[in-house]
């Protein structure tokens, strides 16, 4: 039934360079998104290592020019947020969403290619700042004016303008991508794929796209206004000429808070695909999960000012209440995930391990976020390393672990070959340990008063030990990338042949070959639930009884290691 | 404007994917839905600018301080040339809609006539805005001349850029229409461009109201 | 027919339960040990900080409880429900349960509402501005220095503390009295942050922020570290200040002394002392080399040509890095004659104490 005749392995993707550069195939574009994002992940990581090296001990060791230090953490954050997490998740969505809804491609394939190519261009623009006199943007990834305005002691050089131009470009890419996702999801679903039969991954991409569509243009307006201020003598944000400094923060966070959910919802989608498959159970509370996702998306627009509690310019009780409230749907999701594993039959393959890493780290990131929702506590913690700990627990411990879960889960589909399980587990252990070594001590640093964005600190402030631990952890994370990269490179050529459905998946992408043909499907299974492939495997949705039989000849070359260990499946 | 949607039954054990997915789902076409979503994002973009306008205005007026500043008040006469420009743009929204109705009925001549008028009105509007700008520059009002100049030129400038984009789109569908590419069944691009043109028009009505009419 | 009930050795459940107990034990040990103390904020130094600290304890207790409960569930699920060789049949395909969904929506709702109410109550203690504080101070932030103006009840200037920290520096406040701080900035956004006050507030140009605090009576004689907490440029990390707590009588004496120093005319430069010239402009010195005679006092006629919000001074350190002469900063647009003591021959570095990039070489021969 599956397209067994097609060559299953990498060969299908060894088209010429020209073919890759001009492709409008969502799968190739998705893979380019992933590769591009991973390259920027490494670049952002190098900046992080520089910052951590400087902070390992008191005194100035590396950045004799402290402006370069400010450039480093500014570009680190900008790259990680706008060129790694957001496009990485968009890339996974690009590859997976059309497959999961049984579509041959995205709704607008050429706009899809355009969206992708804006990203490397935006990245180059951003990094080109380092070549300009005055260096790259150095006002933090938030770039609050008046510091980001033009001025001798503010941001005199063109680096800040390049930062603005780059983010307008990346933002436009996101908006076009969001339009494309929404139209694809509403218009291109296969017959039988009703909205409430869509995989959770598709739902999270849908909600994310709505957030991008509503929030990113507002961010673009802030960037444009700052650009006018800097280059045409505008007076939007500069109090010296009648502007309002806090106005930028309001507009910026109106985008950047929803952007946090843009950065985490698709990762939650990945987790919600992985956990059921490796628990051999459906997702617990499918509809509750969808409502929680939509709830997070809606509430996400009402909490932006919790980044501004200390400005003295926002109405504290409202934003405090809303911030606390957003914890509720997040809690609902957490319990749904755990109860998916509960009474299941867990197989600890790498995707599941990374998903469990996501659960535990995101739990910490959610809980330490509640501290900041309590406004008086936020007065103490705001802009200290506590916040750095919180945001990394959410965005690295959450999103990045989710991204790796997704890569380990879908790599066989993308390439036709399996990644090595043992290297994957080494990767996980190093990354998990390194992550916690790096970011947990930041709670202590923040509580004892270490502010963000400083290149040096007094040696008697009591911050030496935890900073050293954090730096050691940072390098452990860097080392953890080596087994991963090695794993990918080796497995591309010599990995075990995956077959159509190596994990016994639930969703439609496992109903076609690995990698799928350019048009995705020869035939689709009947879609009567959110687990069409599961239903097909187990006899049309009469769940609960496994017949164990495979009526699909495509399964013959599936690895034999996956069925229960020791059991004849 | 409905595509030939298919009510596919899901009773067969497996469905021919090709047949299924190459057909439109029922309802609105991809192009029009895409345009509606794109316009949504544009609405949010202008919301950001409008929010900035009102915040700046609130911070720079009251307590006897006039908005717009006294020395610029007289150049913003709502009954001046800008009223003519406004009427022309509103008219163009109507002619654009007439063009859509024409092509829905398959009236290609009516379509080309109406879209041509819309196209020309758009260009005249742009010309009048350029003329208006030269007057304001003559009064010494620029992007850099304080909060009012900054917000005025940013709002009207971005609107003008959108009108320019809309005129380009009108040009494209005019050309395609003249080469006979649209019919009563196949004219999604016309519907999409007309939606965009109405959006540009509505933004202008808002701009005209807040910049010229609200004292 | 659903899958047959699986039989597991009882020891499995015991192991799983044991791990959860172990998890609780580890967390308990960490919390009660020295490392655990660093998970609490520093000792509160003001009445307001005590309220915040109390709120922190409540949030922390709930956080630990939620963490243990959820993490315990995760660990238990992982240990208990591993797939085993005999697991050929599917487990029960539970799709959900509305009752538990409602339950775990309601319980977090109750928790967050409770947290909101207690934090709102604390906020009213921490963030209240009165009309009749005992002491009024205007803290002025500029790149990259703090300055504290003491005001009377009408807001008139009494005295200015230009030295934010170090010997004789810092914002002095009397313990037990209500201090109101007004924050203003001339350039970019800064933030006034004292860790032991558990409090910070942004200093935003074009906007005046106010807050109040009362230092605990038993803190007299203490010096509290403070620091700018909002990125404000290259010198962000050097924007340090101290808050010095004094008994009310010590504070009065200190303030009188500050007024006296401010009114005193600077001692005239010794006549005949050589006069050097230096100018600061665009955050750099006009001349980066100066020469002075050895073993004789000398004067530098210093002009600060930067905007008024930017302050500079000229301090001197020897080749070993020891500061041998310190001067007070002056704001942009002003001039001052700095008098320096006699220096032995050698090569020195002169520098602006505010802007680390402003340095030059002073040759004394």
Description of the molecule:
The complex is a heterotrimer of chains A (569), B (215) and C (365). Chain A contains 16 helices and one strand. Chain A is mostly helical and 569 residues long. Chain A is 62% helix and 1% strand. Chain A has helices at residues 17-22, 26-55, 66-100, 109-128, 159-187, 200-232, 245-279, 286-299, 316-325, 327-341, 350-373, 375-381, 385-415, 421-447, 464-494, 532-538, and one strand at residues 523-525. Chain B is mainly α. The two termini of chain B are 44 Å apart. The relative contact order of chain B is 0.14. Residues 1-24 of chain B have low confidence and may be disordered. With 365 residues, chain C is an alpha+beta fold. Chain C is built from five helices and 19 strands. Chain C has helices spanning 10-32, 34-37, 47-80, 98-126, 248-263, and strands at 135-142, 145-151, 157-161, 171-174, 178-185, 190-194, 199-203, 209-214, 223-228, 240-246, 275-281, 284-285, 289-292, 298-304, 315-317, 323-325, 334-340, 346-351, 359-364. In chain C, the strands form four sheets. Chain C has a five-stranded mixed sheet. Chain C has a five-stranded mixed sheet with strand order 4-10-9-6-7. The N and C termini of chain C lie far apart (102 Å). Mean pLDDT of chain C is 86; it is low at 1-7. Chains in contact: A-B, A-C. Strand 1 (523-525) of chain A pairs antiparallel with strand 1 of chain B.
Give a short synopsis of this structure.
Chain A has helices at 17-22, 26-55, 66-100, 109-128, 159-187, 200-232, 245-279, 286-299, 316-325, 327-341, 350-373, 375-381, 385-415, 421-447, 464-494, 532-538; one strand at 523-525.
Count of helical regions of chain C: 5
Helix and strand sequence of chain A: HHHHHHHHHHHHHHHEH
Query: Terminal Cα separation of chain A, in Å?
Result: 21 Å
Strand content of chain A: under 5%
Shape of chain C: elongated
Classify the beta-strand content of chain C into a percent band: 25-35%
Helix content of chain A: 55-70%
Radius of gyration of chain C: 30 Å
- Which oligomerization state do the chains in this entry correspond to? heterotrimer
Adjacency order of strands in the biggest sheet of chain C: 3-2-1-5-8
Largest sheet of chain A: none
Characterize the biggest β-sheet of chain C.
5 strands, mixed
Helix content of chain C: 25-40%
Order of helices and strands of chain C: HHHHEEEEEEEEEEHEEEEEEEEE
Structural class of chain A, by secondary structure, is: mainly alpha
Say how many strands of chain C there are.
19
């Amino acid at each position: 039934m599956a397209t067994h005749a097609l060559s299953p392995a990498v060969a299908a993707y060894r088209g010429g360079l020209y073919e890759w550069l001009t492709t409008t195939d969502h799968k190739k574009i998705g893979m380019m998104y992933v590769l591009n994002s991973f390259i920027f992940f490494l670049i952002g990581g190098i900046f992080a290592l520089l910052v951590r090296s400087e902070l390992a001990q008191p005194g100035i060791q590396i950045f004799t020019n402290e402006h370069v230090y400010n450039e480093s953490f500014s570009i680190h954050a900008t790259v990680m947020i706008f060129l790694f997490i957001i496009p990485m998740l968009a890339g996974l969505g690009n590859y997976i969403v059309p497959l999961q809804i049984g579509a041959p491609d995205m709704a607008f394939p050429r706009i899809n290619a355009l969206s992708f190519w804006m990203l490397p261009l935006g990245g180059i623009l951003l990094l080109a700042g380092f070549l300009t006199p005055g260096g790259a943007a150095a006002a933090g990834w938030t770039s609050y004016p008046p510091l980001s305005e033009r001025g001798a002691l503010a941001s005199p050089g063109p680096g800040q303008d390049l930062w603005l131009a780059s983010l307008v470009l990346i933002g436009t890419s996101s908006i076009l991508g969001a339009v494309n996702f929404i139209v694809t999801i509403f218009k291109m679903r296969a017959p039988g794929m009703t909205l409430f039969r869509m995989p959770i991954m598709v739902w999270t991409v849908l909600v994310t796209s709505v957030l991008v569509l509503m929030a990113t243009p507002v961010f673009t307006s802030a960037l444009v206004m700052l650009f006018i201020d800097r280059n045409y003598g505008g007076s939007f944000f500069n109090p010296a000429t009648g502007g309002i400094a806090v106005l930028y923060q309001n507009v910026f966070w109106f985008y950047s808070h929803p952007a946090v959910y843009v950065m985490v919802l698709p990762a939650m989608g990945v987790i919600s695909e992985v956990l059921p498959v490796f628990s051999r159970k459906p997702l617990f509370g499918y509809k509750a999960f969808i409502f929680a996702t939509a709830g997070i998306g809606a509430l996400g627009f009402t909490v932006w000012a919790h980044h501004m509690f200390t400005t003295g310019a926002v109405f504290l009780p409202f934003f405090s209440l809303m911030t606390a409230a957003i914890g509720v749907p997040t809690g609902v999701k957490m319990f749904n995930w755990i109860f998916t594993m509960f009474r299941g039959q867990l197989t600890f393959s790498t995707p599941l391990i990374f998903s469990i890493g996501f659960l535990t780290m995101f739990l910490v990131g959610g809980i330490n976020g509640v501290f900041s929702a309590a406004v008086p506590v936020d007065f103490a913690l705001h802009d200290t390393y506590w916040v750095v700990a919180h945001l990394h627990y959410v965005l690295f411990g959450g999103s990045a672990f989710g991204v790796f879960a997704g890569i380990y889960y879908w790599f066989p589909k993308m390439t036709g070959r399996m990644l090595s399980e043992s290297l994957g587990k080494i990767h996980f252990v190093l990354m998990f340990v390194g992550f916690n070594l790096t970011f947990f001590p930041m709670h202590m640093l923040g509580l004892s008063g270490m502010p963000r964005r400083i290149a040096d600190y007094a040696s008697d402030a009591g911050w030496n030990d935890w900073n050293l631990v954090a730096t050691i952890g940072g390098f452990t994370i860097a080392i953890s990338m080596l087994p991963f990269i090695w794993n990918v490179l080796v497995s591309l050529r010599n990995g075990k042949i995956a077959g159509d459905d190596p994990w016994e998946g639930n969703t439609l992408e496992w109903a076609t070959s690995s990698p799928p043909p350019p048009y995705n499907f020869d035939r689709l299974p009947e879609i009567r639930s959110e687990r069409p492939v599961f239903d097909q495997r187990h006899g049309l949705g009469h769940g609960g009884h496994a017949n164990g039989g495979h009526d699909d000849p495509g399964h013959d070359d599936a690895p034999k290691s996956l069925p229960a260990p020791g059991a004849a499946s | 404007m409905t595509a030939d949607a298919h009510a596919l039954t899901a009773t067969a054990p497996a469905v021919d994917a090709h047949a299924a997915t190459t057909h439109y789902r029922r309802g609105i076409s991809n192009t029009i839905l895409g345009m509606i979503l794109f316009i949504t994002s544009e609405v949010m973009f202008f919301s950001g600018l409008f929010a900035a306008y009102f915040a700046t205005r609130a911070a720079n007026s009251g307590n006897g301080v006039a908005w717009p500043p006294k020395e610029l008040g007289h150049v913003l006469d709502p009954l001046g040339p800008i009223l003519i420009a406004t009427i022309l743009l509103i008219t163009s929204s109507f002619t654009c809609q007439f063009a859509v109705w024409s092509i829905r009925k398959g009236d290609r001549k009516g379509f080309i006539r109406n879209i041509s008028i819309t196209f020309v009105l758009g260009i005249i509007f742009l010309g009048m805005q350029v003329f208006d700008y030269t007057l304001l520059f003559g009064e010494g009002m620029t992007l850099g001349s304080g909060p009012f100049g900054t917000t005025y030129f940013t709002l009207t400038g971005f609107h003008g850029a959108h009108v320019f984009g809309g005129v380009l789109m009108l040009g494209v569908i005019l050309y395609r229409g003249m080469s006979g590419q649209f019919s009563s069944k196949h004219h999604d691009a016309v519907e999409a461009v007309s939606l965009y043109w109405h959006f540009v028009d509505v933004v202008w009505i808002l701009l005209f109201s807040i910049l010229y009419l609200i004292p | 027919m659903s899958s047959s009930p699986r039989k597991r050795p009882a020891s499995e459940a015991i192991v799983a339960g044991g791990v959860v107990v172990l998890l609780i034990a580890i967390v308990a040990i960490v919390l009660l040990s020295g490392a655990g103390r660093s998970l609490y904020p520093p000792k509160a130094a003001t009445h307001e900080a005590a309220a915040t600290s109390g709120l922190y304890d409540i949030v922390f207790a709930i956080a630990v409880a939620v963490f243990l409960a959820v993490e315990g569930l995760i660990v238990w699920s992982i240990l208990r429900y591993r797939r085993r060789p005999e697991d050929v049949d599917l487990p029960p395909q539970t799709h959900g349960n509305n009752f538990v969904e409602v339950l775990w929506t309601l319980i977090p709702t109750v928790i967050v509402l409770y947290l909101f109410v207690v934090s709102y109550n604390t906020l009213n203690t921490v963030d209240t501005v009165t009309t009749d504080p005992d002491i009024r101070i205007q803290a002025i932030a500029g790149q990259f220095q703090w300055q504290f103006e003491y005001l009377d009840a009408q807001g008139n200037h009494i005295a200015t503390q230009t030295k934010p920290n170090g010997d004789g520096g810092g914002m002095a406040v009397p313990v037990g009295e209500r201090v109101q701080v007004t924050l203003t900035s001339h350039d970019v956004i800064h933030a006034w942050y004292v860790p032991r006050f558990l409090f910070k507030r942004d200093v935003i140009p074009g906007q005046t922020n106010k807050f109040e605090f009362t230092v605990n009576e038993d803190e007299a004689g203490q010096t509290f570290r403070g620091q700018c907490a909002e990125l404000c440029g290259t010198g962000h990390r050097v924007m340090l200040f101290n808050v010095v707590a004094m008994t009310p009588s010590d504070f009065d004496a200190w303030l009188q002394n500050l007024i006296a120093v401010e009114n005193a005319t600077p001692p005239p430069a010794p006549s005949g002392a050589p006069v050097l010239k230096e100018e600061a402009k665009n955050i750099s010195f006009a001349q980066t080399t100066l020469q002075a005679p050895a073993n004789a006092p000398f004067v530098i006629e210093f002009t600060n040509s930067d905007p008024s919000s930017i302050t500079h001074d000229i301090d001197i350190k020897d080749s070993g890095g020891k500061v041998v002469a310190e001067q007070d900063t002056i704001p942009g647009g002003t001039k001052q004659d700095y008098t320096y003591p006699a220096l032995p021959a050698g090569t020195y570095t002169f520098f602006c104490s505010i802007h680390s990039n402003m340095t030059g070489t002073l040759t004394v021969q």
